[in-house]
Automatic annotation (TrEMBL):
Keyword vocabulary terms for this entry: Amino-acid biosynthesis, Cytoplasm, Glycosyltransferase, Histidine biosynthesis, Transferase
InterPro entries given in the database record: aa-tRNA-synth_II/BPL/LPL, HisRS-like_core, HisRS/HisZ, HisZ
Name of the molecule in the record: ATP phosphoribosyltransferase regulatory subunit
Lineage per the UniProt record: Bacteria, Bacillati, Bacillota, Bacilli, Lactobacillales
Principal localisation: cytoplasm
SUPFAM superfamilies reported for this sequence: Class II aaRS and biotin synthetases
Amino acid sequence: MKNNLLPLGTRDEFGRRASEKQHIISVIADSFSDRGFSKVSTPLLEKQAVFEPYKLGNYQMYRLLDQEGDTIVLRPDMTLPIARFLSSTNIALPQKFWYIGDIFRISRRLSGSYNELTQAGIELVGYSSIKAEFECLVLINQLSQKLLDEPVEIELGIADFTKAVLSTLTDDEDLQDEIAAALYDKQVPKYEQLIQRFSTTDEYQFLLKWPRLFGKPDVIFEQLKDFNLPESIQNRVAELKNVIDWIKQTMPEQALSLDLSSRAPQKYYTGLTFKGFSKAGSGYLFSGGRYDKLLSNFQDVSESAVGMGIDIDLITDLVVSDSKEVNKKLIYFKPEQWQEAEKVLNKTTDAILSLSETREDAEVEAKKLNATIIDMTEGEFIE
């Protein structure tokens, strides 16, 4: 008989990790509710057609057939189901939503990634103002302070920056995609070979520098002064400067970085992008941005939208690795002492009731839990 009957890429959660994860979810949910977001829940199963207009990254979806022969999937993303939900209802906009749930993505074999992930997030739909992005940035700052000991750095980018630059050089979309892929993946030799054909253009020196345009905003902006960029690019840089100035004024202690050669979190992003990461762990804890054309694939009229996802599992990993082991107290008592034991339980921090039959069994239980025994059968009471 097989000892592990779990599907590949999934895991059971219990004990300390499960408790920490639930605490993180509660803190996030309370924060969203306190700021006036409305909770929305979508089904775990969605029709495959909901995700077909988009390339959702380097993973596959879990597929199955329903009783009508339609292909349905375990949702690999939370934003697209909410877009589907909004297109099928008459909810008045603008609205601010929050969600939490599991998503399922079949990752590359041997990638080390789990296929089942817990994600929380927000969707601000119907807001064209930059204040929608600012709301997300404030939440990254506040939640990181509530949940983590290590500060989170916010990395800013522009979803269509690469497209805007490359479209000034060539109309060949296949070539644009090839250059962008090499840029995003930091394949510098291949990238430099691809841009060689533009060596006589005014933008060539910028193209050579482009893969290294990431880091402290002030340093990046100073480097950009050396290049005579098209007005469309200069306008995007100016928008970034305004956002950074606002962050410095509103959250002066917030660590910031800029990456002008990064891939947008998803294909449907159109404007400012932001990611939050901790130097204590790998991966982005927060990720989001503007995607004003998202709803156009579900209805005739599009809507302005900004969203942010939160990787609950990565945050849990950081919290569990940083937290110290709690010294529990195990209350051992006789059945007739149950009421007294409840009183001791309520007055004692980090205490639990022992349900063992004998003192010897309680000692074994305490050893497994690394706990200290409070033996009420011998008169150990806490007043």
